[in-house]
Amino acid sequence: MDSTTGLRTLRDFIRFGASQFRAAGLNFGHGTDNAFDEAAWLVLHTLHLPLDLPESWWDARLSEVERTRVVAVLRERTATRKPAAYLTREAWFAGLSFYVDERVLVPRSPLAELIAAGFEPWLDPDAVTRALDLCAGGGCIGIATALALPQAQVDLADVSADALAVARVNIERHRVSDRVRAVQSDVLDGLEPGDRYELIVSNPPYVDAEDMAALPDEYRHEPALGLAAGDDGLDVVRRILAGAHRHLTADGVLIVEVGNSQAAVEAAFPELPLIWLEFEAGGHGVFLVHARELPAA
User: Fold this and answer.
1) 161 and 39, same domain (yes or no)
2) Could you tell me which of 134, 140, 141 has the C-alpha nearest to residue 160?
3) Residues 110, 129 within the same domain
4) Per residue in 97-146, pLDDT tens?
5) Could you tell me the residue range of the domain that residue 44 belongs to?
């Protein structure tokens, strides 16, 4: 007997999806952190319903066509182990909807909390005229920054032409093309010598070789170019720290997410006065350093 026989309501299919995901041992972390929320996201998106749908709707019955579509997407998630964001072509970051596909990482950075605060107390948000999202991928961090700092011009820099194509989709999606541009750059090497920013924020590749070898299947659908950073995870971070002072204003700040490579950064740069940021909503491995401290690096 088909395991979906008897399923009729939204509640039925969300429960079914969550059960299937747990039984299959799926990994979460690309927008949700558990099987139930992942199933709810996929079911609601497939039915073109909002994620904040009132629970009173959960007993609504699905049509036969809707049931077929929902079962198909739940089974695709289990069979392919693709993150839900790649199936829906949508991810949420800093309260904003972004287009994503396999050309870019799925956004999941604690930097969203810092953006929501306008980067205070580390910067005066009204004083930021230019900002750089370095290793921007699909542009989520930079575009969210532009929307939080409406007077700032923001550059999205990435080495990947494919990633920048996605970033341009998101620039148009959020109607910020007058203030946000995509720039192809191998870390800092593609920027103009005169490009100076009060803020450089970066979520670069920082996964070390050991962690890359142990990644769950879901993460292997993401571009390795956005994850892998050599044996110790610092190949790109070293280049950022070596060159950022050339592109920061005198009172500018550099903010970099390094995740689990925090210990490696601390060991490699013991002389650098890095400020490790704390987040109320969770997250770790993000440092801030002032421009005036960087020449010593």
Assistant:
1) no
2) 134
3) yes
4) 999 999 999 999 999 999 999 999 999 999 999 999 999 999 999 999 99
5) 10-88
